[in-house]
Amino acid sequence: MHDDASNIFNLYLEAVEEQPQMTTDEQGNKQWRLHGVKHRVHGPAIERADGTKAWFLHGKRHRMDGPAIEKADGRKEWWLHGKRHRDGAPAIEGADGVTTWFLHGNLHRDDGPAYENPHTGYKAWYLHNKAYAKPELWAAAVLKERNKPHDDASVDAFLRTILRKDAEAAL
Prior knowledge:
The chain is α+β, with helices and mostly antiparallel strands. It has helices at 2-16, 135-145, 152-170; strands at 21-24, 30-34, 37-38, 46-47, 53-54, 56-57, 60-61, 69-70, 76-77, 79-80, 83-84, 92-93, 99-100, 102-103, 106-107, 115-116, 123-127, 130-132.
């Protein structure tokens, strides 16, 4: 249903808007602009010769049906209306496996660490762009936000569930 609405909206934009002008530089990089800003409704507004692609709408990084940035090295970034954003998955997926979660432009994840580096094991815990030095403090904040008990036993049980999900996902 969401895709149908998005497609209808894009068809509407295409019908009522002027079309962007495409330029190509001497290295073969392509760019689409409308009224001086990067803009393209159906496809990336930047296509680099190395294979990197970036989607823009009215000068802001934006794509509803996939990553707004696809780098040649495999890195992917999801953006909506100029802000890093992805529901239920990391907004940045590095080619090296590093993941970073954003919601409406804020570092945020309420079911695990917002930053994970599988090579070093480093994890960072964020809720609404606020960093928590310890997973226990983050878990207490998540439980409190959900109006759940956030005593030590509840925090420990919640963290065990989160860490068990991480371990299962790694298998």
